[in-house]
Design a protein that fits this description.
By secondary structure, the protein is α/β, with parallel strands linked by helices. It has one domain: Metallo-dependent phosphatases (Purple Acid Phosphatase, chain A, domain 2, 4-Layer Sandwich), CATH 3.60.21.10. 37% of the residues lie in helices and 18% in strands. It has helices at residues 4-14, 60-67, 77-91, 108-123, 158-164, 166-170, 209-225, 252-262, 317-323, 329-332, 334-353, 360-379, 388-395, 400-408, and strands spanning 39-45, 95-99, 128-131, 143-146, 149-152, 175-176, 183-188, 191-195, 228-232, 266-269, 276-280, 283-287, 297-304, 307-314, 417-421. β6 and β7 form a beta hairpin. The radius of gyration is 21 Å and the shape is globular. The two termini are 41 Å apart.
Length: 423
C-alpha cells in the first residue's frame, strides 16, 4: 500500500512534463444560454476499489491494512458500492461510466461480484460502460484476508476482464481496437465516447502505434459525422499538481494532439484519487476523485447541444443504510465516518514525520493541519494557506510533507464543477 510520501518522491524524481496545465479551470464557465435539444445525462465514477465480502472476515490483517492505507473506506466496501448502485438506479442517468480500478486488488471474485451488481443497473435500462485500471489486471497482490493471514487469489487477464464485463460497454461498442481494450461507445445520437485503455494493452500505461492509428480513424469518422466527442481513461492525460510519474499516460502528448486535432472537448479520468480539473489550449481534463475515499465522489455530466456541464456529488451511504434497516453507527453517520477515517489516516502519517518535534502540542497541531489541508485538496475544495504559522513550521521541517503543503498552499479554486463548449 503506497503512502503519500512515495507519491511525492516519485513526483519529485520525474521533473516537469510536457502537458503541464492551467490550474483552477474548475471556475471557468462558458455560457450555455440558448442551447436547445435533448439532454443526455451521464454519471461517471472511478476507483471503486471494490472487494468481495467473501474475501475478508474483517480480521486483524485486513483492518490493519485498511487503517494504514491511503484513506479508502475498505471495511465498508460492500455497503458503499451497494449504496452507489442504488443511487444510480434512483437517478436514472442515460448511462453510467466507470473509469477503472474497479477492484481493490484485482481478485477474480471481486470482479465477478461487481459485475453482478452492475447487471442490476443494466436490467433497469441504464447502460454501463467500463474501463480497467492498473489494480484490475494481472495483479500479483490479489488476495483474501482471514484473521492474521493473507492468501493469494486468482486475478484476471485483459481477455478475462472483457469476458466478465462484456455486457458493460464492450457488447454495445460501435468499434473496438484489436490491440487493446479501447472502444467507441455512443450512448446517444451524435455523442461519441472514446473509452481509451492503457492497462490491457501490451504497452502498459502507453498507447501503441496501432492503437493511435485506430484512434485517429475513429476520431476522424466522428468529426466528419459532426459528432460531439468526449473521452475517458483511467490514467491522466495531463500533469495535475505534483503527481505525474505512473499517473499520466506515458505518450499522452500524442493522444492530446489527436484530441485537439479532431475537436474532442474533454477527457475524464481517475487514478489520482484527487478531484482536479485542468485546461490546456482549450482542452479540459476532469479527474474525478475516488469513490472509495471521502467525500465519496462521483461525477454528473449533462450534455445539451454544444455544451457539457460537469459537477460532483457524494454517495449518501447513511440514507441507504436507513432504508435498508442497518443500525451500525458508522453506516448511519457514514459521511462523518469516512471523513474522520481519511483525517486519522493522514494525521498518523504526518505524526510519523514529526518524530523529532518534542513539543507534543505543536506536533498535534501540525499533524492536524496537514490532515485537513490534504483532505481539502483531495476533495477539490478551496483550501487557502490556512494557518501561516503551521505552514511555516512544516516548511521548516525539511520533509516531503512540508514541500507538499507548500505546493498546495493558496489553492483557491473549486475543482468540482466545469462547463465546457464542444468545438
Amino acid at each position: 500500500m503506497r503512502h503519500l510520501l512515495f507519491y511525492l518522491l516519485m513526483a519529485l524524481l520525474t521533473g516537469g512534463e510536457d502537458l503541464a496545465l492551467s490550474y483552477g479551470a474548475g471556475t471557468k464557465t462558458i455560457s450555455a444560454a440558448g442551447e436547445e435539444g435533448p439532454q443526455t445525462r451521464l454519471m461517471v465514477a472511478s476507483d471503486l476499489h471494490y472487494l468481495s465480502p467473501s474475501l475478508t472476515d474483517h480480521g486483524s490483517c485486513f483492518t490493519e491494512l485498511a487503517r494504514n492505507g491511503d484513506g479508502k473506506v475498505m471495511e465498508y466496501s460492500q455497503e458503499l458500492v451497494e449504496a452507489f448502485v442504488d443511487t444510480v438506479l434512483e437517478k436514472k442517468p442515460d448511462a453510467l461510466i466507470l473509469t477503472g480500478d474497479l477492484t481493490f486488488n484485482g481478485a477474480r471474485k471481486s470482479h465477478e461480484d461487481l459485475a453482478d451488481k452492475l447487471a442490476r443497473i443494466e436490467e433497469a435500462g441504464i447502460p454501463v460502460a467500463v474501463l480497467s485500471g492498473n489494480h484490475d489486471l494481472w495483479n500479483k497482490n490479489a488476495a483474501s484476508f482471514s484473521g492474521d493471514r493473507v492468501t493469494f487469489e486468482e486475478s484476471v487477464s485483459a481477455k478475462e476482464f472483457k469476458e466478465i464485463y462484456f455486457p458493460f460497454g464492450f457488447e454495445e461498442a460501435c468499434a473496438q481496437d484489436e490491440t487493446s481494450s479501447s472502444y467507441i461507445w455512443e450512448p446517444a445520437a451524435g455523442l461519441r465516447i472514446v473509452m481509451l485503455d492503457v492497462n490491457g494493452a501490451a504497452q502498459a500505461c502507453s498507447v501503441s502505434e496501432d492503437t493511435l492509428k485506430w484512434l485517429e480513424d475513429q476520431l476522424k469518422e466522428g468529426q466528419e459525422a459532426g459528432d460531439r466527442m468526449i473521452a475517458f481513461s483511467h490514467q491522466n492525460l495531463m500533469w495535475h499538481s505534483m503527481f505525474a510519474d505512473g499517473y499520466m499516460i506515458e505518450n499522452s502528448r500524442e493522444v492530446f494532439d489527436l484530441y485537439q486535432k479532431y475537436g474532442v472537448a474533454a477527457n475524464f479520468s481517475g487514478h489520482l484519487h484527487i478531484q482536479r480539473i485542468g485546461e490546456l489550449d482549450g482542452f479540459y481534463e476532469v479527474v474525478t476523485s475516488a469513490l472509495s475515499v471521502s467525500p465519496l465522489h462521483y461525477g454528473e455530466i449533462a450534455v445539451k447541444g454544444k455544451v457539457l456541464d460537469y459537477s460532483t456529488e457524494s454517495v449518501d451511504v447513511s440514507a441507504w443504510a436507513g432504508k435498508n434497516g442497518r443500525t451500525e453507527k458508522e453506516l448511519l453517520e457514514f459521511g462523518d465516518y469516512a471523513r474522520r477515517f481519511f483525517l486519522d489516516t493522514f494525521y498518523r502519517q504526518a505524526e510519523e514525520k514529526l518524530a523529532g518535534v518534542k513539543d507534543e502540542e505543536q506536533k498535534d497541531r501540525m499533524a492536524d493541519y496537514f490532515a485537513w489541508q490534504n483532505y481539502r485538496y483531495f476533495s477539490g475544495c478551496p483550501a487557502g494557506p490556512g494557518d501561516e504559522k503551521l505552514l511555516r513550521a512544516w516548511k521548516g521541517s525539511e520533509t516531503f510533507f512540508g514541500m507538499y503543503l507548500e505546493g498546495i498552499a493558496g489553492e483557491e479554486k473549486d475543482q468540482n464543477r466545469i462547463t465546457v463548449e464542444f468545438r
